[in-house]
């Protein structure tokens, strides 16, 4: 539901003021429409109107919830309301979206079966907001083991809305893709342990083209304003003065309209209309805040910074790609060719995507063809180049969106749970685009409305067809309820070979086919009263959907269905240096057209196969919707193991006869498999497989007016929605019929404790079931051949009784456990007291023994000391005279011995002294003799030394004179020679003569000084014999 910032005190309706609607209570309202006494359209509309005026936007139809969009924020989603609707019954509180979440959670834990919540309604009826509230409540119900997981799950929806929602004419936050969110819970504790997202039918064409008064996906505006206000705009080459074609109405800059293809004339009008508008400052500020929120979501969920940067780079590259323009040129051989007018953008895009500049340029302007083993390069025309450019932008965004979904699923996959046999149950939430009927409806609206037809058919089958068939098989008397069966519409769309989608695929495979030939083929082959051809020759046709007639404009159907991407672009993307871009084009596509998600599966190993005790849907597995062996048509391929009914698209209740068609495998890469219609078929099949695998819960969202005005309740608009959704018939069958059918064995197995005693023998038959229900005081039930038929309120009563019984059993068990625990406690207490006494006794004995031992040891020590003293005294008294006598004798002996030793010592000293005196005399005589000898030798040596020194002195003086005369002659000769050579240099000659003269004087002085010193030295030389001296 759309949320506004504030609520006005007074609202207007068609220009007239009205009072506060809370004060108007014209009709007595009921919370469950099945309880109305008068059941008709007027009564239902009056009830809804009255409740809407009282701000009660939720109403039950049995177990189905109706939600009327208030277009305003109501104070009924606070923490108080969240706690109020946890583990409560419907009768305790008013209808609420939180009650549906609680009911599905309780049925999952109670019945041990997967659940599915289907949210349906028109675009702008509040489906996305309802899905967000359901996720919020389910997260609170299944308390995660850690807070981080809860935060991650809650951040998924804002992120998906940014990338998958956009503004349309009738809804500012319209889902442009189908989302099936599965939350995983443990079977033992019911704690949420993970989640998985599956996306369907993303409207990729919105990336390159938006209708009048519509916008591109939200993320482009968040990214543009968020990066422009940060310092990262230069990193992504964003400029404030640049207009981006894909969001031109927002950036307020008009590109060259002549460069836009004629097939986008609506874009041209839209650009012209919005060129002169001033930018909305409040929207820009809000987008910046939203961008911060998206960054926070990426961080909380667990995306790496490198991955987030790659996502931003891809988104900016898409914006830059939209501005690439082409101009025609002469090819030289008469054909068409083109060149890029602004090649600087190719450089920017190649840098952002990690591509080679030349490769990207060639892939946009040329096409390669293989002929007879040779590659032929052909130039593209301007139109072909623009188609290649737009195809690249769509492929990048579509694969990026699928990659983000797979990445979220991998980050939120259930982790390791303690216990090898732990099982997971799932609660799935389907939030898909609502039924759309615009002024101009194209291929996207056709696919959206077919998907809504399929969901409506599933609702009819579950609420009406299967239930009425059960009545017939079980021979239950029930009023026949007439309902509008939309099976013929699905036959017309999906049957082969003349179904609308089959004809579209067939025409898409012809290269020369046009939208005109396609419409002609529709007119010729589709023979159905719900198909109408126009009265004029316009390329239009009309379909009578369950929600009303819609006129479709077939212009562009073939091109949108083909959705072909040039192989050259695919190849260069696979060689990208950006790891994210490379993975987008290297990962194979599934049959639904999405990137392969790997090993993340929605069903756990416990996958319930049969009907649960309280299941409202049979244990079935869907397969292809086909009439001639393929998807499309009204008959199912039966197996030989059981009956089927050719009147229904789904198998009969209670039979699991059909083999599932798995859609997780990679799709073929042939051109036949690459049409959007083919992907659409498999997406519907996969969606049905997921929906039928769990017990469904339905939330019908209603749109009170087309102006998004709070307080404006258009009765005619509501009546129209009630009619085509079959609310009146649903109310009747919920009031008159039996919405829950449970086999006897399952019913008695679960509820026998409520009506039988412990020792009773219970036979599994209808009578036992009747007896059990009678014992419980229930009425208005029915017993069939093999099943018990209960109304919607019976199941809640049984569940309440079962819970009450369980609480009583738990209470009895608690009292018994209390008595046992108390008994064990008293026994343990008595044993402990007894043990305490023993411990005290032993402790006291130990303390006494320890004290006595200390005293005894002290006394023993004192007695020993006394005995020792007495014995010593007696012994001393006895031996004292003997000791004195012995002492006197010892003193006498010692005195005699000392006298003898002293005398002997004195005699020895006298003899030694005499010997020393004799020795001293002898040494003195020897010393005198040595002195005489010394003096004599000294005299003799001196005499001899003086003679030798005189001889040596004379010899040295002679040698010195000879050397002096020789040097004088040598120097004189050299002087004369130099004098002759240096006559021209008289000044230098004088200097040289003086130097030589001074040198000669110094040497002679030195020689003379040597002669003077020799006698002095010789006087100190020791005297020795002359022969020894000269030797």
Q: What do these coordinates show?
A:
The protein has 1031 residues and is α+β, with helices and mostly antiparallel strands. Among the domains are: 112 residues, Methane Monooxygenase Hydroxylase, Chain G, domain 1 (Up-down Bundle), CATH 1.20.58.530; 51 residues, no CATH class; 105 residues. The protein is 53% helix and 10% strand. The protein has 29 helices and 21 strands. The strands form 7 sheets. The protein has a 7-stranded mixed β-sheet, with helices on both faces. A 3-stranded antiparallel β-sheet has the order 15-16-17, with helices on one face. Keywords: Actin-binding, ATP-binding, Cell projection, Coiled coil, Cytoplasm, Cytoskeleton, Kinase, Motor protein, Myosin, Nucleotide-binding, Repeat, Serine/threonine-protein kinase, Transferase.
The overall strand count is: 21
Radius of gyration: 57 Å
Number of helices: 29
Measure the end-to-end span. 137 Å
Overall geometry comes to flat
Name the helicity range: 40-55%
**What class do helices, strands and sheet pairing give?**
alpha+beta
**Do you know the CATH architecture of the domain at 443-554?**
Up-down Bundle
Biggest sheet statistics: 7 strands, mixed
Low-confidence stretches: 1-25, 252-276, 416-420, 599-673, 1014-1031
The portion of residues forming beta strands comes to 5-15%
CATH class type of the domain at 443-554: Mainly Alpha
What is this structure's SSE topology?
Blueprint: E1 12-13, E2 16-17, H1 41-53, E3 58-61, E4 64-68, H2 79-84, H3 97-111, E5 115-121, H4 127-141, H5 147-154, H6 156-164, E6 165-166, E7 174-175, E8 178-186, E9 192-200, H7 218-228, H8 248-251, H9 265-274, H10 281-301, H11 305-322, E10 326-330, E11 336-340, H12 343-353, H13 357-365, E12 366-371, E13 374-379, H14 382-411, E14 424-431, H15 443-474, H16 487-494, H17 500-508, H18 515-525, E15 531-532, E16 540-545, E17 548-553, H19 557-562, H20 567-574, H21 579-586, H22 676-692, E18 695-702, H23 715-724, H24 727-736, E19 740-743, H25 744-755, H26 766-775, E20 782-783, E21 787-790, H27 792-981, H28 986-1018, H29 1026-1030
Helix pairs in contact: 1-23, 3-4, 6-7, 6-10, 7-10, 11-12, 11-14, 15-16, 15-22, 17-18, 20-21, 25-26, 27-28
Domain Myosin motor: 28-803
Main location: other
Subcellular location: Cell projection; Cytoplasm, Cytoskeleton
């Amino acid at each position: 539901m759309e949320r506004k910032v504030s609520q006005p005190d007074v609202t207007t309706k068609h220009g007239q003021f009205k009072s506060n609607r809370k004060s108007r209570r014209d009709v007595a309202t009921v919370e469950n429409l099945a309880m109305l006494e008068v059941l008709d359209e007027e009564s239902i509309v009056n009830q809804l109107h009255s409740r809407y005026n009282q701000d009660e936007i939720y109403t039950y139809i049995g177990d189905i919830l109706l939600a009327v969009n208030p277009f305003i924020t109501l104070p009924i989603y606070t923490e108080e309301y969240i706690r109020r609707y946890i583990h409560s019954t419907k009768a305790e509180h008013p209808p609420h979206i939180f009650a549906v979440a609680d009911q599905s959670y309780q049925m999952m834990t109670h019945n041990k079966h997967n659940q599915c919540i289907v949210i349906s309604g028109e675009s702008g009826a509040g489906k996305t907001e309802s899905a967000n509230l359901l996720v919020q409540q389910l997260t609170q119900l299944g308390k995660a083991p850690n807070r981080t997981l809860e935060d991650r799950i809650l951040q998924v929806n804002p992120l998906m809305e940014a990338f998958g929602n956009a503004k349309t004419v009738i809804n500012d936050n319209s889902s442009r893709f189908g989302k099936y969110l599965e939350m995983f819970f443990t079977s033992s504790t019911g704690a949420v342990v993970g989640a998985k997202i599956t996306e369907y039918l993303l409207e990729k064409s919105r990336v390159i083209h938006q209708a009048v008064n519509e916008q591109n996906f939200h993320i482009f505006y968040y990214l543009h304003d968020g990066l422009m206000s940060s310092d990262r705009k230069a990193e992504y080459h964003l400029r404030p003065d640049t207009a981006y074609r894909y969001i031109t109405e927002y950036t307020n800059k008009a590109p060259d309209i002549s460069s836009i293809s004629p097939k986008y004339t609506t874009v041209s009008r839209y650009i012209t209309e919005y060129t002169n508008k001033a930018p909305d400052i409040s929207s820009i500020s809000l987008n910046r805040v939203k961008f911060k929120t998206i960054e926070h979501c990426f961080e909380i969920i667990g995306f790496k910074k490198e991955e987030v940067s790659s996502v931003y780079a891809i988104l900016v590259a898409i914006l830059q790609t939209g501005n690439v323009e082409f101009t025609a040129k002469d090819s030289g051989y008469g054909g068409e060719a083109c060149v890029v007018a602004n090649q600087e953008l190719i450089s920017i895009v190649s840098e952002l995507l990690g591509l080679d500049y030349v490769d990207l340029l060639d892939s946009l302007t040329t096409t390669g063809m293989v002929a007879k083993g040779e590659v032929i390069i052909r130039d593209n025309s301007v139109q072909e180049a623009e188609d290649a450019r737009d195809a690249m932008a769509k492929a990048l965004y579509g694969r990026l969106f699928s990659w983000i979904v797979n990445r979220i699923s991998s980050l939120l996959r259930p982790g390791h749970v303690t216990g090898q046999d732990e099982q997971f149950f799932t609660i799935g939430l389907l939030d898909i685009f609502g039924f759309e009927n615009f002024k101009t409806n194209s291929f996207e609206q056709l696919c959206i409305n077919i998907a809504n037809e399929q969901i409506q058919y599933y609702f009819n089958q579950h609420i009406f067809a299967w239930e009425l068939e059960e009545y017939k098989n079980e021979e239950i008397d029930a009023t026949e309820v007439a309902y509008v069966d939309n099976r013929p519409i699905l036959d017309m769309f999906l049957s082969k070979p003349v179904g609308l989608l089959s004809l579209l695929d067939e025409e898409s495979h012809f290269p020369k086919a046009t939208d005109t030939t396609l419409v002609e083929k529709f007119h010729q082959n589709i023979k159905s009263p719900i198909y109408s051809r126009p009265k004029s020759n316009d390329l239009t046709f009309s379909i009578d959907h369950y929600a009303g007639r819609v006129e479709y404009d077939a212009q562009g159907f073939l091109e949108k269905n083909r959705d072909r991407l040039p192989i050259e672009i695919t190849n260069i993307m696979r060689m990208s240096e950006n790891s994210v871009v490379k993975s987008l084009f290297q990962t194979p596509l599934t049959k639904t057209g999405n990137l392969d998600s790997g090993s993340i599966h929605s069903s756990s190993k416990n996958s319930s196969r049969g009907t649960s005790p309280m299941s409202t849907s049979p244990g079935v597995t869907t397969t292809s919707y086909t009439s001639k062996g393929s998807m499309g048509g009204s008959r199912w391929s039966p197996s030989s193991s059981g009956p089927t009914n050719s009147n229904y698209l789904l198998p009969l209740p209670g039979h699991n006869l059909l083999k599932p068609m798995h859609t997780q495998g990679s799709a073929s890469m042939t051109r036949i498999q690459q049409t959007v219609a083919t992907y659409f078929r498999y997406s519907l099949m996969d969606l049905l497989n997921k929906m039928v695998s769990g017990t469904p819960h339905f939330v019908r969202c209603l749109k009170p007016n087309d102006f998004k005005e709070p307080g404006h309740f258009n009765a005619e608009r509501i009546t129209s929605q009630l009619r085509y959704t079959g609310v009146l018939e649903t109310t009747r069958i919920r009031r008159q019929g039996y919405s829950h059918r449970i086999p006897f064995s399952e019913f008695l197995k679960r509820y026998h404790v409520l009506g039988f005693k412990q020792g009773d023998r219970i036979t599994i038959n209808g009578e036992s079931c009747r007896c059990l229900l009678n014992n419980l005081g229930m009425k208005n039930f029915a017993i069939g051949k093999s099943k018990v038929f209960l109304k919607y309120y019976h199941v809640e009563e049984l569940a309440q009784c079962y819970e009450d019984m369980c609480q009583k059993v738990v209470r009895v068990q608690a009292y018994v456990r209390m008595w046992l625990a108390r008994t064990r406690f008293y026994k343990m207490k008595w044993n402990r007291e007894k043990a305490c006494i023993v411990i005290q006794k032993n402790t006291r004995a130990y303390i006494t023994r320890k004290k006595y031992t200390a005293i005894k040891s002290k006394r023993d020590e004192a007695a020993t000391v006394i005995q020792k003293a007495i014995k010593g005294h007696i012994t001393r008294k006895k031996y004292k005279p003997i000791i004195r006598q012995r002492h006197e004798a010892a003193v006498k002996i010692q005195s005699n011995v000392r006298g003898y030793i002293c005398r002997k010592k004195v005699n020895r000293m006298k003899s030694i002294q005499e010997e020393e005196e004799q020795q001293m005399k002898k040494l003195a005589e020897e010393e005198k003799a040595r002195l005489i000898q010394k003096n004599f030798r000294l005299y003799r040596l001196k005499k001899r030394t003086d003679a030798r020194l005189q001889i040596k002195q004379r010899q040295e003086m002679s040698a010195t004179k000879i050397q002096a005369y020789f040097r004088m002659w040598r120097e004189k000769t050299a002087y004369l020679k130099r004098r002759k050579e240096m006559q021209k240099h008289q000044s230098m000659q004088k200097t040289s003569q003086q130097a030589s003269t001074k040198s000669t004087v110094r040497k002679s002085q030195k020689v003379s000084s040597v002669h003077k010193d020799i006698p002095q030295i010789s006087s100190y030389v020791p005297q020795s014999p002359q022969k020894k001296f000269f030797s």
